[in-house]
């Protein structure tokens, strides 16, 4: 009798475990009337590939989304609902591109009627009788940022259209591969601009672009985007870009999601920090503390793998490199100012640029800096033996592709120094937007003797590098911290007000905590809690909280290639 | 005994070799490509792969790697351009080891004390308190405890720093946070183990012999109940010494943990291999030490081994 | 016969035959076995039942299990519906929009018992939905781990010698492989879902119990009862399972209960990288993880899942202690 009671207990336990198992699984089968693996299996008579290639369906997806809702839910309202593709801040002829060429294809709220119309049209074409027969998959990476948005879109499409949505998570690297290979139905994508021109965004969807894994293809779009650069008049170019963007949105090539804004906070008396979507994410060169003796700045970045200019491969390195090194131009926010070059000319046909360097340009140790140092740097970047991952920035430069492939010698690269103070860049294709680009680290000068002397160890410590920028590095612990003091030989020394800059490397959340306890002077605020700090200033009595647009634009790529497993790529 | 240790060392090296080989091929199976970046063109990708020798057949790469390994060179990171894995380890390991050793020490000492206390006073209030502490310690993972401690002591009360590693006060919070789980585990195991030992006959004998309570505990009870802890400590030491990602990132301690986790995420093959090999060395050594300690701590085990050898000898 | 008994403080008593009554030998009574003969399991169950603390633990667990099964069905809110007009509500509250909507439609508005999360999803529903996943995974994974661990560890410890050496080296290699790599590879091969999640967790999880069992077996190998059993002709398997395991059960149960929260949080970690449960499904580990990020501003979002994990642990521990005492053959119960 007693034994049977024990058996009964064990039996009950097993039963409840089974019920759990069943319940935990049950939710998903309810959402998925069809198959669970590749839904290229037809349920009914249509395939997912056909569905995604149907313009009405894509438009239905777009119109059924209340973009304000997912922004409220996923980022607590911090980000802008994305209703177009190109970043609103991008420069226009006079103001911004967005102001001069507004797009009204999508609104930030849903248009459920329109969505329903398009969905019905799509269902009729494909012979679907009930929206619940449709299941689409969104692929996201394990990056914590994209989950909430995907979950909300999943919920909205389920509510507003009646279709089923599954979310598939893969690792970041796998997602990058899948995106290029076309191995997705809908996939998360994001982009950061390289320069202040719509081309940096729109070139993504040119049909020949390898990154265009969803195979969006439109002749007129290609024509517009590829030829716009041949026009020197900015207004003409922008109008062409605008027309292209309109096509992209009307054809529903993507589901625009959001434009990111980054919340951050800084000490109340800290002035002069510039955070802009172009250039380094923190520009501290002209910063200073108001009303105090001590002018020592301390902040952090997430990861600084290297500070070798040509081997630069992560945006945080930009922040560090721009401190001790300077290129031809020196951008501050949207402004392009003289750097090592005092003045420059851009050819009428946009096929070359000529820079006139300062006569007194020098390295931080006082030795003279000439145009040859730039020639060497560009060649080093193009040299296949350097294996610089950012060498793609040279793509437009004459012969660059051939040099990188090893087919031509580095001397054939389209850069030259007719004399010590003149530097000329020649292009293969018109590149009118290139000017602001030159602020980037791969284009910064390096001293040939030092690079050859230290070889692989160049820029591995404070002693093995030489810069020409506003600051000089006194201590460099790789991926741990960088300490800098003003460069007495800098041409604009009087404008530098800080006495020292220390950049730590640490996790973003830890940085925020250290800012609050006073060890750091500025930090990004974690997105989840940012709203509270932005709304209630009393939570951070010694600091000011702000938002800035960091240029990141997110969207869902839709696979229109006809195969969701990459067979057509 | 020395022969045993030598034999074990050789086997340890062999084990390591197997581990490294498995990981070498396993990471290549991971989906994705370390050089894949939305902005990087195919030509540049190909160039990068050639630069790192990844365009050669895999077997050739494997033997090249082994060759370098024998020279003590763990290779160059694929993501942290130009940095050797050796220098990364050399720079970050001291921090992780420092943090880890302190945490382990704290956990061991406090855990043993609490566990013994709980077992001695089983059924009384102290016992329940110790068990409760242990339960909470085990139920809450490091990211919650670490965040809580930081919130209370560093941000709200401002009595301790919220991060970095510049002095003794900086070590307090991360060490306590890190030691919590191990402390709880040791407390529970010790209590459990000791409760068994307490009821044994030889304890009664010892007491009957007239040994003081302290002597009974110290000479008999602890020694006999410590075995499960030694078992558990082996891999624990290896894990904690080679960096704990969560605590290090939360308290901005520049240790190894970050590389161990992120290198898999970034598909930095050489870094993953280097970290794993390094961790493997510790693991294997720790297990060797544990096995040796078994013999020292519990004479029965040694006896059993030699007895078995004697039996085998007779049969053979 | 009379004797006189005298002592220091006792009065003189004369012992006569009438004072003493012969009881005699009642052989039947002497041979009666008063204490019932019990098998090991009967003994264990009796001890368990009589232990109030353990019983309390069991009751709490049963309550949680029942809630996990039935609560999500009985609540009007779904665990998955986003509601951007009811985000981050504290427990027992409703947002203004919800109140207005209910006033309009005339329906009764149910309060959010545990509040809502960042996406406006009801936390009461999510907590109990998550309970299903966490309890199942916790118990299943730990049980499987223990069974495998016992077998492997028992064999390694008992047979010693080369078998032990090989098994331990295999363990070394397995343990050295980072779990993330295994998890990602499993995800590629098996897809995501509960099964691949369990496989990923078990693949490395059995090692710690195996080690523990091996250590204990090494210790107990030379005990007298083992010798006795072998002398009586017991097979090796029988010795391991029937004699050694019950003596190891104490430590084993402790280890098992300690491993469960580990399993819960491992599951959260794995689900984050894509293997395991998919959104919008949740688990206590996931809830705790998202709650931890918001700890300063919305503490209840962390406190609630943490509370349930802790109390589950507590009940398991109470039950575990009771089980340990019950299964310990040296501690016979009282009746």
* Overall pLDDT score of chain A: 87
Percent strand of chain A equals: 15-25%
Q: What is the fourth-level CATH superfamily of one domain in chain A?
A: Dipeptide-binding Protein, Domain 1
Q: Overall 3D geometry of chain A?
A: globular
CATH topology (fold) name of one domain in chain B: MetI-like fold
Tally of DSSP helical segments of chain B: 14
Quick one: biggest sheet of chain A?
7 strands, mixed
Helix content of chain B: over 70%
Topology-level CATH name of one domain in chain A: Dipeptide-binding Protein, domain 1
How much beta of chain B, percentage-wise?
under 5%
Question: Based on helices, strands and strand pairing, what is the structural class of chain A?
Answer: alpha+beta
| Terminal residue distance of chain A | 69 Å
Distance between the termini of chain B: 22 Å
Topology overview:
The complex is a heterotrimer of chains A (569), B (316) and C (335).
Chain A: H1 2-31, H2 48-53, H3 55-63, H4 67-75, E1 80-81, H5 97-100, H6 112-126, E2 135-141, H7 146-161, E3 164-170, H8 172-181, E4 186-191, H9 199-202, H10 219-228, H11 234-250, E5 254-267, E6 270-271, E7 288-289, E8 296-301, H12 315-324, E9 329-332, E10 335-338, E11 341-346, E12 352-357, H13 371-382, H14 400-404, E13 415-419, E14 422-426, H15 434-437, H16 448-454, E15 471-477, E16 481-486, E17 500-505, H17 508-516, E18 522-524, H18 527-535, E19 543-558
Parallel strand pairs in A: 2-3, 2-4, 8-17
Antiparallel strand pairs in A: 1-5, 4-19, 5-18, 5-19, 6-7, 9-10, 11-12, 12-14, 13-14, 15-16, 16-17
Helix pairs in contact in A: 3-6, 4-7, 10-11
Chain B: H1 2-29, H2 42-51, H3 58-70, H4 85-120, H5 125-139, H6 142-156, H7 168-198, H8 201-209, H9 213-225, H10 227-241, H11 245-250, H12 257-266, H13 269-297, H14 299-315
Chain C: E1 3-5, E2 13-15, H1 27-31, H2 40-50, H3 52-74, H4 96-105, H5 123-159, H6 161-176, H7 179-190, H8 194-220, H9 224-231, H10 236-272, H11 284-293, H12 300-327
Antiparallel strand pairs in C: 1-2
Helix pairs in contact in C: 2-12, 3-5, 3-12, 5-6, 5-8, 5-10, 5-11, 6-8, 7-8, 8-10, 9-10, 10-11, 10-12, 11-12
């Amino acid at each position: 009798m007693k034994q049977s009671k024990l058996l009964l207990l064990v039996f009950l336990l097993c039963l409840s475990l089974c019920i759990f198992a069943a319940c935990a699984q049950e939710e998903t089968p309810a959402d998925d009337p069809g198959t669970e693996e590749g839904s290229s299996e037809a349920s009914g008579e249509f395939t997912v590939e056909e569905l995604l290639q149907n313009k009405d369906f894509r438009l239905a997806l777009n119109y059924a989304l209340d973009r304000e809702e997912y922004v409220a839910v996923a980022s607590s309202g911090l980000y802008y609902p994305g209703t177009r593709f190109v970043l609103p801040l991008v420069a226009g002829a006079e103001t911004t591109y967005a102001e001069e060429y507004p797009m009204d294809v999508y609104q930030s709220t849903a248009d459920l009627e329109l969505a329903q119309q398009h969905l019905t049209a799509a269902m009729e074409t494909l012979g679907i009788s009930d929206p619940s027969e449709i299941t689409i998959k969104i692929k996201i990476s394990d990056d914590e940022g994209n989950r909430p948005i995907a979950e909300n879109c999943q919920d909205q499409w389920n509510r507003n259209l009646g279709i089923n949505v599954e979310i598939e998570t893969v690792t970041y690297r796998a997602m990058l591969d899948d995106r290029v290979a076309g191995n997705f139905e809908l996939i998360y994508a994001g982009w950061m601009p390289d320069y202040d021109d719509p081309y940096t965004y729109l070139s993504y969807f040119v049909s020949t672009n390898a990154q265009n894994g969803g195979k969006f293809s439109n002749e007129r779009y290609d024509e517009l985007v590829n030829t716009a650069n041949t026009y020197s008049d900015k207004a003409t170019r922008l109008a062409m870009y605008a027309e292209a963007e309109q096509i992209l949105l009307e054809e529903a090539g993507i589901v625009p999601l959001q434009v990111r804004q980054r919340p951050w906070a800084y000490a109340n008396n800290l002035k002069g920090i510039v955070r802009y979507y172009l250039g380094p994410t923190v520009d501290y060169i002209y910063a200073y503390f108001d009303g105090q003796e001590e002018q020592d700045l301390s902040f952090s970045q997430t990861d600084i793998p290297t500070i070798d200019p040509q081997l630069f491969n992560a945006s945080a390195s930009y922040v560090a490199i721009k401190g001790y090194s300077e290129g031809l131009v020196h951008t501050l926010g949207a402004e392009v100012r003289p750097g090592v070059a005092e003045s420059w000319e851009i050819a009428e046909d946009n096929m070359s640029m000529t820079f006139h360097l300062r006569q007194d340009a020098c390295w931080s140790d006082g030795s003279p800096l000439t145009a040859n140092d730039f020639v060497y740097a560009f060649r080093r970047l193009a040299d296949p033996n350097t294996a610089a991952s950012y060498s793609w920035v040279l793509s437009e430069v004459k012969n660059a592709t051939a040099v990188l492939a090893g087919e031509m010698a580095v001397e054939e690269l389209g850069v030259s120094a007719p004399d010590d103070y003149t530097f000329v860049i020649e292009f293969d294709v018109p590149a009118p937007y290139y000017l602001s680009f030159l602020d980037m680290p791969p284009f910064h000068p390096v001293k040939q003797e030092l690079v050859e002397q230290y070889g692989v160890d160049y820029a591995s410590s404070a002693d093995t590098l030489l810069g020409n920028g506003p600051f000089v590095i006194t201590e460099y612990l790789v991926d741990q911290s960088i300490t800098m003091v003003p460069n007495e030989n800098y041409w604009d020394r009087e404008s530098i007000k800080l006495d020292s800059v220390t950049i730590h490397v640490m996790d973003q959340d830890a940085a925020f905590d250290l800012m609050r306890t006073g060890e750091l002077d500025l930090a990004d605020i974690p997105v989840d809690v940012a709203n509270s700090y932005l709304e209630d200033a009393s939570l951070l009595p010694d600091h000011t909280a702000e938002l800035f647009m960091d240029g990141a634009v997110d969207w869902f790529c839709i696979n229109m290639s006809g195969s969701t497993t990459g067979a057509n790529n | 005994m020395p022969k045993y240790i030598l034999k074990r060392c050789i086997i340890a090296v062999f084990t390591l070799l197997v581990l490294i080989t498995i990981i070498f091929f396993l990471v290549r199976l991971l989906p994705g490509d370390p050089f894949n970046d939305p902005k990087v063109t195919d030509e540049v990708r190909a160039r990068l792969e050639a630069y790192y020798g990844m365009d050669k057949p895999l077997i050739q790469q494997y033997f090249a790697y082994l060759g370098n390994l024998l020279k003590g060179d763990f290779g160059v990171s694929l993501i942290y351009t130009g940095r050797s894995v050796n220098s990364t380890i050399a720079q970050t390991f001291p921090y992780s080891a420092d943090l880890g050793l302190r945490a382990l020490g704290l956990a061991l000492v406090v855990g043993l004390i609490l566990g013994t206390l709980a077992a001695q006073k089983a059924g009384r209030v102290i016992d329940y308190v110790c068990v409760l502490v242990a339960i909470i310690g085990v139920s809450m993972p490091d990211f919650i405890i670490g965040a809580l401690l930081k919130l209370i002591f560093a941000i709200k009360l401002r009595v301790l720093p919220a991060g970095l590693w510049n002095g003794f006060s900086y070590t307090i919070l991360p060490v306590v946070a890190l030691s919590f789980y191990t402390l709880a585990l040791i407390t529970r195991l010790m209590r459990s183990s000791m409760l068994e030992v307490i009821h044994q006959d030889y304890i009664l004998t010892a007491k009957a012999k007239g040994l003081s309570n302290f002597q009974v505990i110290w000479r008999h009870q602890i020694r006999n109940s410590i075995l499960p802890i030694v078992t558990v400590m082996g891999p624990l030491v290896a894990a904690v010494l080679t960096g704990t990602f969560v605590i290090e990132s939360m308290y901005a301690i520049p240790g190894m943990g970050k590389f161990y986790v992120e290198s898999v995420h970034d598909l930095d093959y050489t870094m993953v291999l280097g970290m794993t090999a390094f961790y493997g060395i510790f693991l294997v050594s720790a297990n060797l030490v544990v096995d040796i300690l078994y013999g020292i701590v519990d004479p029965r085990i040694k006896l059993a081994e030699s007895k078995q050898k004697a039996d085998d000898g007779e049969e053979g | 016969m009379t004797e006189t008994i005298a002592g220091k403080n006792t009065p003189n008593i004369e012992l006569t035959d009438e004072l003493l009554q012969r009881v005699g030998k009642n052989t039947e009574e002497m041979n009666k076995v008063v204490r019932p003969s019990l098998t090991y399991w009967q003994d264990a169950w009796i001890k368990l039942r009589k232990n109030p603390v353990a019983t309390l633990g069991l009751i709490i667990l049963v309550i949680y299990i029942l809630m996990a099964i039935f609560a999500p069905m009985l609540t009007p809110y779904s665990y998955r519906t986003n509601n951007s007009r009811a985000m981050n509500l504290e427990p027992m509250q409703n947002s203004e929009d919800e109140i207005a909507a209910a006033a309009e439609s005339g329906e009764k508005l149910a309060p959010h018992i545990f509040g809502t999360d960042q996406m406006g999803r009801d936390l009461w529903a999510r907590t109990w939905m998550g309970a299903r996943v966490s309890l199942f995974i916790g118990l299943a994974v730990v049980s499987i781990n223990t069974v495998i661990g016992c077998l492997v560890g028992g064999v390694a410890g008992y047979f010693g010698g080369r078998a032990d050496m090989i098994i331990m080296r295999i363990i070394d290699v397995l343990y050295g492989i980072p779990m993330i790599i295994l998890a990602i590879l499993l995800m590629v091969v098996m897809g995501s879902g509960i099964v691949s999640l369990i496989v990923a967790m078990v693949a490395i999880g059995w090692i710690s119990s195996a080690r523990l069992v091996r250590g204990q077996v090494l210790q107990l190998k030379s005990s007298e009862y083992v010798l006795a059993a072998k002398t009586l002709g017991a097979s090796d398997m029988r010795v391991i399972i029937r004699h050694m395991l019950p003596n190891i059960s104490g430590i084993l149960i402790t280890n098992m209960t300690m491993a469960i929260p580990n399993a819960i949080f491992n599951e959260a970690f794995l689900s984050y990288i894509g293997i395991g449960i998919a959104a919008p499904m949740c688990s206590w580990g996931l809830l705790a993880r998202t709650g931890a990020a918001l700890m300063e501003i919305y503490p209840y979002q962390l406190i609630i899942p943490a509370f349930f994990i802790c109390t589950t642990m507590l009940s398991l521990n109470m039950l575990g202690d009771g089980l340990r005492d019950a299964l310990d053959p040296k501690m016979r119960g009282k009746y």
